[in-house]
Amino acid sequence: GPKGVINDWRKFKLESEDSDSVPPSKKEILRQLSSPQNRDDKDSKERFSRKMSIQEYELIHRDKEDENCLRKYRRQCMQDMHQKLSFGPRYGFVYELETGEQFLETIEKEQKITTIIVHIYEDGIKGCDALNNSFTCLAAEYPMVKFCKIKASNTGAGDRFSSDVLPTLLVYKGGELISNFISVSEQFAEEFFAGDVESFLNEYGLLPEREIHALDQTNMEEDIE
User: Fold this and answer.
1) Which of 144, 72, 138, 81 is nearest to 110 (CA)?
2) Which residues of the chain carry a pLDDT beneath 70?
3) Domains in the chain, ordered, with CATH?
4) What angle do CA 188, 190, 191 make, to 5 degrees?
5) What pTM was computed for the model?
6) Ramachandran quadrant class, 193 (left: phi over 0; alpha: psi -120 to 50; beta: rest)
7) Helix, strand, or coil here: 124?
8) How many CA atoms are closer than 13 Å to the CA of 31, on its beta-carbon side?
9) How many CA atoms lie less than 13 Å away from 72 in the CB half-sphere?
10) End-to-end CA gap in the chain
């Protein structure tokens, strides 16, 4: 609840203070505000139940260090929240599948909650290199998605993936094909990048929220202030 959040902040503030640089009066106030109440101590009840005076408030909040400490506290809270919400396996890079058997094993044995996006490509095909480069960026930004690539000639079904349908994107979840896009580079300009591929996949709801981006954006906004 709100009281728990306030106490967490006060404890965080006290622990982050440098004992050599904080005036004793300030440390004592912080310690009193963050320590649990002793029910058997009448003086403690009166001390903890009284309102913080204006002088105490100014003493705690007037320094620039307090503002920086509050920012660190907010950042830590966001990181803890995202860690709790971000469950399941994490990847962070592009997997090169070497054979059709490896391709099938990846689709069939991966956890059901995981979205798998496979790029079927060949060297020298227009758009394949740009899509592979885009996958490298997106895999880092969406670590909960498993990005893979495999050469059409290695799939064991090269006749189904001729050059005129490459690059092809196949999207799986729970062992089922949920989306497929042939000649996907035709959806983009002649020169395209990770942001273009990201927008395209988001149009079909194939990417989760970017929790890493949200944290970076918060950090950036705090640094500007």
Assistant:
1) 144
2) 1-67, 69-70, 77-87, 211-225
3) 2-79 (1.10.168.10), 95-204 (3.40.30.10)
4) 90
5) 0.59
6) beta
7) coil
8) 9
9) 13
10) 28
Element (H, E) at 119: strand 115-121
Query: Packing angle between helix 211-224 and helix 64-85, nearest 10 degrees?
Result: 170
**What per-residue confidence (pLDDT) applies to 215?**
47
pLDDT, tens digit (0-9, with 9 covering 90-100), for 40-60: 555 555 555 555 555 555 555
Spatial CA neighbour of 122 closest among 177, 160, 179, 176: 160
- CA distances, 94 to each of 38, 138, 148 (Å): 56, 9, 5
Omega cis (within 30) before 167: yes
Question: Residues, the chain, total?
Answer: 225
Q: How far apart are CA 225 and CA 203, in angstroms?
A: 33
List pLDDT tens digits, range 201-216.
Answer: 999 999 998 754 444 5
188: part of which helix (H) or strand (E)?
none
